Lipopolysaccharide transport system ATP-binding protein
Amino acid sequence: MCSDKIAISVDNVSKCYQIYANPRDRLKQFFVPKVQNLFGRERTRYYDEFWALKDINFEIERGEAAGIIGRNGSGKSTLLQIITGTLTPTTGTVKTNGRIAALLELGSGFNPEFTGRENIYLNGSVIGLSRKEIDNKFDAIAGFADIGVHLDQPVKTYSSGMMVRLAFAVQVQLEPDILIVDEALAVGDALFQKRCFRQIEKLTSNGVTLLFVSHDQESVRTLTNKSVLLDRGIQRRTGLSSEVLLEYRRLLHEEENQYYANLTTDISERAQLEQETDVSEINIKPSEIESDGSPVVVLRSDKLSFGEGEAVINQVELYNESGDRVNVFNPGEVITIRIHFQVNRDIDKLNVGLRIRNKEGVKVYSWGTLNQDMQNISSGTDSELFWKRNFSAGVKEFVDLRFECTLGSNLYEVQASVSYEETPDYFSQKILHWRDEAAFFHVHILRDSYFFGGLTDLKMKAIW
């Protein structure tokens, strides 16, 4: 067993599947190599290997909340099945310390012919609870599931939403040491998901170890403090959730670029074959050449940024109404966020924008010059569009984004970006440079003169 401090230990875990072209090859693989071995011949292999996981290593301490994130097909579900013991690794070992409650595939662990009530007792007995212990918890389970008279109907008649309600209620009320949650919660409605997340936070605060898998980056950021990023079965990064999620966004960005690069290549090759264009007419990605023909160096100024590099964010500053550079504000003050950027090639159709998040990772607001341009186009006053400006290579500029502060007391992060917008509507966007943690500021509440609670001031009025 792993030490008392470690709840989950994954050591060099790999999982390989044998892929057969047809059932006949599977039958051959069962008999032929054995016969060849009897005659001392080299054994023939009738399958291809697919490594769903390759050399995965991490540890999760007791009471820690950890996330696993990655695209579909990255190996997340395979890893969870290995951790819960429903799947055996090809190589490596997994050690767990404590009672595990797992909410994986929808309906897993339920007998479809049994009623909801019978499945509650079945699940409880499987993890070692006595009937009396389950009796004591039954009302809490039924109340959380909130499926009414359906509790005494066969589970096979349940909707997907009812199924996940019952499954989650059973797992969290049975007092696990380790709670493993896969994407199943996405099936529930918004209100039920809110109750689930509240219950998860309650469990983790009581010392339960959480392993959480979701495509919702903000949920992972809010619920976990460390994460593992998987990509095609490879462990790309492990660390603080904020850093891992940044790497995940960078990975998605790189894959999107590769997709469009391949698409451009396919179009060019097809055009050549059809002799509709000559080589001089083939489109080349703007990021591949400078105006003088030399290669463009894609700038990645630090680990918190990514992008094509045709324009970059140099600096972000915050100013108060008096023009002083500060980073502490009160509600009601005017905040100016100045974004300095540099253009590395002749270009137009730019959008300079930002995203503001609080310290809990919740996105409070996102906006950019294109938002203002879209409003002007809609109103018919499109003569002064930032999107229409032409920028020459080497030019350094800045944009001021100004707003009245109505934010609640918190620490806020400013993420800045400059993007190329093919059309003035956000439908065809290419990130030239994105920068996390470009600036920070704090908002204090004036308790005597301007006091409210929550994320932002809704400007309410009392009428009587």
Q: What stands out?
A: The chain is about 30% helix and 30% strand. Residues 288 and 294 are 9 Å apart (CA to CA). The longest helix spans residues 241-273.
